[in-house]
Amino acid sequence: QQQVKQSPQSLIVQKGGISIINCAYENTAFDYFPWYQQFPGKGPALLIAIRPDVSEKKEGRFTISFNKSAKQFSLHIMDSQPGDSATYFCAARVTGGGNKLTFGTGTQLKVEL
Amino acid sequence: EAQVTQNPRYLITVTGKKLTVTCSQNMNHEYMSWYRQDPGLGLRQIYYSMNVEVTDKGDVPEGYKVSRKEKRNFPLILESPSPNQTSLYFCASSLDRGRQPQHFGDGTRLSIL
User: How far B10 CA sits from the closest chain A CA (Å)?
Assistant: First the structure.
């Protein structure tokens, strides 16, 4: 079963617009929530991450919003640029044990001129 | 340059012919992991290793083997590949038993005919 559900599967945004990708999780033991960005032919690269003790984290044009009670978190890309066109994965991890990352299914973002 | 290197990047082979995908990292990381990426499923962990001679199963270990004889190398072995192992494979590494962000290689695309 998919422990981290991600939506939408694909997204088209105009240049300068806001891209929003949502994720929901079931396991309340998750304590670290990263977002990864993947370009074609490359491996995923860490973009931004948040821990559940804060509700928002911002790094440049990228913001994670976190709602612990709803078990949801989202990535907002402000002023989206064509160079942001990539596949985005949310993930979650339980610290300890295998420190395994559980990934969402990915969102293919295209930013059009 | 800090990196995770996978070889080969592409491989087409036939059912039952043993193959090995190599993974090497130059960052002295303790933790290494293998994932497979399939459309609509995101990335799923196959095996991970906390340190030399310490390996454990991830979510989808069936049909795969790994070894960790040296800190820098973590090969993925398919003893008798089958078509359902056709996928995009990623190796990742991180410091601190996986608690730090994972660095991914650029992937190996395997096609099993």
Answer: 11
Torsion from C-alpha of A83, A88, A94, A99, nearest 10 degrees: -70
CB B57 within 8 A of CB B71: no
* Partner-chain contact A99 B97, CB within 8 Å: yes
Which of A3, A1, A11 is closest to A87 using CA atoms? Answer: A11
Among the partner residues B35, B42, B90, nearest to A106 by beta-carbon distance: B42
* Inter-residue contact B111 to B13 (CB < 8 Å): yes
Pull the structure tokens for residue A98: 């295998």
Torsion of CA B6, A21, A80, A41, to 10 degrees: 20
Q: Which of these, B108, B111, B98, B92, lies nearest to B21 by C-alpha position?
A: B108
Q: Evaluate the CA torsion angle A103, A107, A111, B3 in order and state its sign.
A: positive
Task: Report how far Cα A69 is from the mean position of its chain's Cα atoms.
Answer: 18
Contact A43 B4 (CB under 8 A): yes
The 10s digit of each residue's pLDDT in B18-63 is 999 999 999 999 999 999 999 989 999 999 999 999 999 999 999 9
pLDDT tens-digit series, residues B52-72: 999 999 999 999 999 999 999
**Interchain contact A41–B (C-beta under 8 A):** yes
CA distance A106 to B110: 20
